[in-house]
Design a protein that fits this description.
about 300 residues; alpha/beta; Rossmann fold; 9 helices; 9 strands; binds NADP nicotinamide-adenine-dinucleotide phosphate
């Protein structure tokens, strides 16, 4: 027999009030995730949807949230390609550049759980090249994933959270919005655009019980650069400076901390009693926001030029 009841549970001070939830019969063998949730003292787990959970920051976040008692739904454009080594979570096929794919993905989550308590908009890509050489089509494609992809996901999930009267959202930005990377102008611009989106949305959602934060990581050692097209710069009028800048970027990521440092901060954003608007994670996350606040822009840009050797 399947029982149902209203559950209220708390994760580090955050309470998720859930509607009647079907509880499986007591003789059902618990799965590994259920066992972890039981060990964390939770009767019903809050659910979280993490976009781009197949790799890097999304994968580490999905793993950590699962370990901390969340029921995790993670997306990949092609979950089947991840093979046997893929993490133990509910996989959802989703391409955030497609409205239809995002809607179907969110529908699939809501087919398995009555509500989405938390959302991590993490999926994103990079692009490299000078402002005058990257084509408008390439620039649009970059915004299509990083900005409009996040916007599509928010538009699909927020109405459900608003109707439920609660929800927590972490959008993954980048410190590149505070220190725009030369020859990664389009990437940096998508992350600045996300900041505007998050701050305006936060005020729109103020009376609804749904809260959104931006989490800006610095350099994190993931496959991000492998997935970023660096292109052929041989004929570029900026070739020499692009090469030096590219080298700084390629050298810095392998020395950077792993994605678990971001996952911890995302967990904090999702479970804080009063989440902050901005969270920062990884290298320079202490100094950069301070620098941009107190150091004149011209001087800050000089530091950035020197750092990237341009
Ligand atoms: N690594 C860093 O230094 C760093 C620093 C600051 C901010 N960030 C941000 O952190 C986020 C994750 O980056 P990462 O470093 O973890 O890179 P990554 O290892 O390359 O992971 C990117 C993830 O995004 C997913 N993705 C890409 N395009 C997608 C699309 N069109 N639809 C759905 N999913 C898509 C990929 O999933 P599939 O390929 O399986 O679909 C993958 O799981 C990005 O937003 C990035 O801008 C990274």
């Amino acid at each position: 027999m399947v029982r149902s009841r209203v559950e209220v549970h708390s994760l580090t001070g955050l309470e998720f009030a859930r509607p009647a939830v079907a509880i499986p019969p007591e003789d059902t063998k618990p799965d590994a995730a259920a066992t972890r949730r039981a060990e964390a003292g939770l009767l019903v787990s809050p659910s979280v949807l993490v976009t781009g959970a197949s790799s890097g920051i999304g994968a580490a976040t999905a793993r950590l949230l699962g370990d901390r008692g969340f029921e995790v739904f993670g997306t990949s454009r092609d979950p089947d390609s991840l093979g046997a080594g893929r993490a133990d979570l509910h996989w959802i096929a989703m391409d955030i550049t497609s409205e239809d794919s995002v809607e179907k993905g969110v529908e699939a989550v809501l087919h398995s759980t009555p509500r989405i308590d938390a959302l991590v908009c993490n999926a994103g890509t990079g692009i490299f090249g000078s402002v005058e050489e990257v084509t408008i089509e390439q620039a649009k494609a970059q915004f299509e994933t990083n900005f409009f992809g996040t916007l599509r996901t928010l538009r699909a999930v927020v109405p459900h959270m608003r109707k439920a009267g609660s929800g927590r959202i972490a959008v993954i930005g980048s410190l590149a919005r505070l220190a725009p990377i030369p020859f990664q102008a389009h990437y940096s611009a998508t992350k600045s655009a996300l900041d505007g989106l998050v701050q305006a949305l936060r005020n729109e959602l103020h009376p609804t019980g749904v809260c959104v934060s931006l989490v800006d990581p610095g350099d994190i050692n993931t496959a991000f650069n492998d997935n970023t097209p660096f292109g052929n710069i041989g004929a570029s009028p900026y070739a020499e400076r692009i090469r030096r800048c590219e080298q700084v970027i390629l050298d810095s990521l392998p020395k950077a901390p792993g994605p678990a440092v971001v996952a911890e901060v995302v967990h904090r954003a999702l479970t804080a009693r009063r989440p902050r608007v901005h969270y920062y994670a990884g290298p320079n996350s202490g100094s950069l926001p301070w620098l941009r606040r107190f150091v004149p822009d011209g001087l800050a840009l000089r530091f950035i030029r020197r750092h990237f050797k341009v």
